[in-house]
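Can anyone check this?
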Amino acid sequence: MTNYNYPQPLQDIERAINHWALLKAETGAVGLDEKMAEIQALLAEKLAELRALPEDPALRAAEPDDLDAIRALRPEGERRYWSELPEATYRDRLEGAWLGRCAGNVLGSIVELWDIDKMEAWAEHLGDAFPPADYWSEAERPNELKYETSRRDAFTPSKMDGVPTDDDLIYTQVGMLILEDYGIDFTVDDVGAAWIKYLPVTPATPVLDNLQAGVPAGKAAAVDNPTQFWIIGSISADPWGYAAPGYPELAADFAWRQSTVCNRRNGVYGSMYFSAAIAAAFALGDPMAALEAGLSEIPADCVLACELRWALDVAGDIKDYREARAAADERYAGMHPVHTINNAALTVWGLAIGGDDFSKVIGETVAMGLDNDCTAATAGSIFGAAYGKDAISEQWTRNFNNKAHSLIIGQPEFALDDMVDRFTALAGEVLAGEYSSASVSAR
């Protein structure tokens, strides 16, 4: 792995400054306002210097943002498996992918970012199995709303009526709407317009703020945004794999257009990788083979590709969620818990550990922690795309009731079967088309 040499976080200093300021105010100290202004100015100056530090030019050259440059650095691989849509096979696997994504997300959502010890203690308190073998029987803070729409207890079997709202799932829905609204030749600017139209909130808050302030979509990710390598691209990869089944090159192209709005470098590659892996899973019927195939659509020497190859190489040695999390913590010490790279490794290991057992795939992946609703959703999607809907036990879907709730502006609910119909129509259109990679980065 490239050594990121993460520095010691400064939150303790910030906390100390604020606490001492409060104490000095309470003891009547003279000159407090002036001193705090001086500190603020000094921090602003040092932040500007931090942002101006030069990047490693060799690493930058291996990690371009332009699509043509990305493609020039890809390894050899199968760019397209299906020349036309085998509708019966595709539809079965699409239902599996979408249901698997929903189930993985719902299982992880109310324990998102929890440490393993906290999840184990909550499972013991409830009498639930751990790793989870079904949805959590109760939710901590059950009355609290997620995204101002679904109560947290709506993620439990006794309260679930439809797939509850979560940010990971809306990107699948928004991706479908982008393809329908703008066509399969949609542009980066179209993605930006769709985000403004449909998203009241997003984990990529700096990006949405930039878009709403008029920053062009192709530049929004790079303006005052230190989250450029975070997982937002990976969690929004699925619609592109669904719309370009058996065509990983085009799925990655679609993903690039979307993730360019919210990510750079390895954040973009995460979206391209998982969209390509999902597209390949439809044709290959094997999650691990699909994960290998996805590597063909990102730069061979980027950090994400190096880390994915390592994760795949050691996957056979990692036997459960504890070993997976320990390996990630050791290798990625200091990395943010919603980063693309550490969560990608956990997704690989969840699929490897679970094999052809869907419950084990999402249960082990959630039990690993970090951004575990995202990782379980992606693992569930790849599993379903490979194995189809019958490989997913009814226990995970019995309370979905053919509906997914949403925070999308103007569209609070989607019928699950209607989404399958719409993606099937899009996939038929995509695979019937002819595409050229020439000048594609101008989109």
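Reply from J.R.: I decoded it. Residues 436-443 have pLDDT under 50 and may be disordered.
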